[in-house]
Design a protein that fits this description.
With about 600 residues, the chain is an alpha/beta fold. Helix content is about 40%, strand content about 15%. A hairpin with a 5-residue loop joins β7 and β8.
Length: about 600
């Protein structure tokens, strides 16, 4: 079925807006593809360095251009649970490459930080900037010009977006992303959140809190809530960068290993040496990006992707805006309820039918572009499947079930959980921002209350501990943007504001910072731009100003006259404490050069 005319119109305007940048980008990658990967033109010393540790047979194969060489970019470390399974992947990929008559080498490693470890800590101020560092590190690995295609091993928050930016920068090469899968289900996410609130209220101690956290995060794999990491996996599959049905298979299983080997063989099959050459920069186009946004809305995905998708698109010469994202939200229904948008985790979502079911439902009503290229061929219809292990250990794919395995977790287009998607753009006299609506109750979508202004999240936490946060209010937490301190996630505020909301207070958050992809139930107008450090009007709000956050009509307003607002001096904050410690001094140039949130909040575009 052709795409819905509203989706087609939004896509068309992105195409038109992007034309100059996209044409220049395609010209560059086509020139790179035409020159090819010619290892034979490398100097003998260059080539000898490149295959020094390969076997004699591999050296002979790589001495010319007779076989394809697969570059592995890995984000492995064994502190990050989602990335620990990648320890064994290079060996599996090399084995698969040999079976396919090719060669595979680890081209490079990239950093992978855990936002769960750094949440509320100084290291969180490096988190968003790590996306661009990852892109640059991957670029260094691929710059050796030894590779005919690349596979990318990454799962978590900034890692996949950074790898995607790198893949598109080397868009003349085919690229496949290989997931590691979610950890098995542990302590339910809502129970973990309940214990966190009890701890914040002083009703349980640190031992009880640590026990709950450890039962929730208990083994290898991605955290099971639907935050940025699992939103990444959804995006890679719905954009055609994963092989079908591979996103949410648990680590350490025969099927997971079979899918990894299959992906490696597929990457070798789509190089310029075969008959299905699929350079990723040609494959990912405006329709693919729009499909990613639609998947984000239909699943209630992470707000962080209002930054990352913009940055990923720009790497391919495509200019995606928050208005595009918001307009698509008005068209796309919410079809999944996964924590924090519901009680289920991603394992329950997968068991209910997962992405195969969701993609089929969206295609059925023309809510996705089917006429796209993917790493598996042409069209998204091939992704309406469930991956299984067949005889002999090969991957087989079966059509997804006609009915959802759990209609409370995954539903159909004709019976959506809500008629519109999970994210909404906000505009008003304070600038532009984003709000996640999929986890907010209908009666909280519009909040009008006096401001309580804080220069950092610690100030709000201290006010809570001192019993100062009474009555209805909008917490304004500013100087949290990319130029101020790297735009850290303020997820720890969710617990405090959640307690107050549960007590019956009408509360909301307004900030130029970010929230975790796991945040949800408290209305939060985030990513407000211009940020306070850049002179944004969020820096002129005073305690007691009436603030209106309207997620239905898409508005953020300080109910203050324009003349009064203009006459006020801009607030200042002492940010010297953000300049040093835990590596922050290394990123001063990033803070100086960072772009605004609606451009991706990075330094590369």
């Amino acid at each position: 079925m052709a795409a819905d005319k509203r989706i087609a119109a939004i896509t068309a305007r992105i195409v038109e807006r992007s034309k100059p940048a996209r044409e220049a980008y395609l010209g560059r990658i086509r020139a790179a593809a035409a020159s090819g990967v010619h290892r034979s033109v490398l100097g003998c010393g260059n080539l000898a360095h490149g295959f020094a540790v390969c076997s004699p047979a591999e050296k002979e194969m790589l001495a010319g251009d007779r076989v394809a060489n697969l570059g592995i970019i890995t984000a492995y470390n064994d502190m990050l649970s989602a990335h620990q399974p990648y320890e064994t992947y290079p060996a599996l990929i090399r084995e698969a490459a040999r079976e396919a008559g090719g060669v595979a080498q680890v081209a490079g490693g990239v950093p992978a930080m855990c936002d769960g470890v750094t949440q509320g800590q100084p290291g969180m101020e490096l988190s968003l900037f790590s996306r661009d560092v990852i892109a640059m590190a991957a670029g260094i690995g691929l710059s050796h010009n030894m590779f005919d295609a690349a596979v990318f091993l990454g799962v978590c928050d900034k890692i996949v977006p950074g790898l995607a930016i790198a893949a598109l920068t080397f868009g003349h090469l085919p690229a496949i992303f290989i997931p590691a899968g979610p950890m098995t289900t542990g302590l339910p996410n809502d129970e973990k959140a309940r214990v966190r609130q009890l701890y914040a209220e002083g009703k349980v101690g640190r031992a009880e809190l640590l026990e709950a956290e450890s039962k929730s995060y208990h083994g290898p794999g991605t955290c099971t809530f639907y935050g940025t990491a699992n939103s990444n996996q959804m995006l890679m599959e719905i954009m055609g960068l994963h092989t079908p049905g591979s996103s949410f298979i648990n680590p350490g299983t025969p099927l997971r290993d079979a899918l990894t080997k299959e992906a490696a063989k597929r990457a070798l099959a789509i190089t310029a040496q075969g008959n299905e050459f699929t350079p990723v920069g040609e494959m990912i186009d405006e329709r693919s990006i729009v499909n990613g946004v639609i998947g984000l809305h239909a699943t209630g995905g992470s707000t962080n992707h209002t930054l990352h998708l913009v940055a990923i698109a720009r790497a391919a010469g495509i200019h995606l805006t928050w208005q595009d994202i918001s307009d698509l939200s008005d068209v796309v229904p919410l079809l999944a309820r996964v924590y924090p948008n519901g009680l289920a985790d991603v394992n329950h979502f997968h068991a209910a039918g997962g992405l195969g079911f969701l993609i089929r439902e969206l295609l059925k009503d023309g809510l996705l572009h089917d006429d796209v290229r993917t790493v598996f061929g042409h069209g998204l219809q091939a992704y309406t499947v469930e991956a299984r292990l067949g005889d002999g250990g090969a991957v087989i794919r079966m059509p997804v079930a006609e009915e959802s395995g759990d209609a409370k977790v995954l539903t159909t287009v004709d019976k959506p959980f809500q008629a519109t998607g999970g994210l909404k753009m906000l505009k008003g006299n304070l600038g532009t921002g984003v709000i996640k609506t999929s986890a907010v109750k209908a009666e909280r979508l519009v909040i009008e209350a006096p401001a309580r202004v804080f220069q950092d999240q610690q100030g709000l936490n201290d006010a809570f501990k001192n019993g100062e946060l009474t009555g209805d209010f909008v917490a304004v937490v500013r100087f949290q943007g990319p130029q101020a301190n790297g735009m850290p996630e303020l997820h720890k505020l969710t617990t405090v504001l959640g307690i107050l909301q549960d007590r019956g207070q009408k509360v909301a958050l307004l900030t130029d910072g970010r929230m975790s992809g796991a945040s949800g139930k408290v209305p939060a107008a985030i990513h407000v731009t211009p940020e306070a450090k850049a002179g944004g009007l969020i820096g002129k709000i005073r305690d007691g100003d009436m603030i209106r956050i309207d997620a239905i009509n898409g508005a953020i307003e300080a109910l203050v006259s324009d003349a009064d607002l203009a006459a006020r001096p801009q607030a200042e904050a002492d940010l010297s404490g953000n300049d040093y410690g835990m590596g922050r001094e290394l990123f001063s140039i990033f803070r100086q050069m960072a772009g605004p949130a609606d451009h991706g909040a990075g330094v590369l575009a």
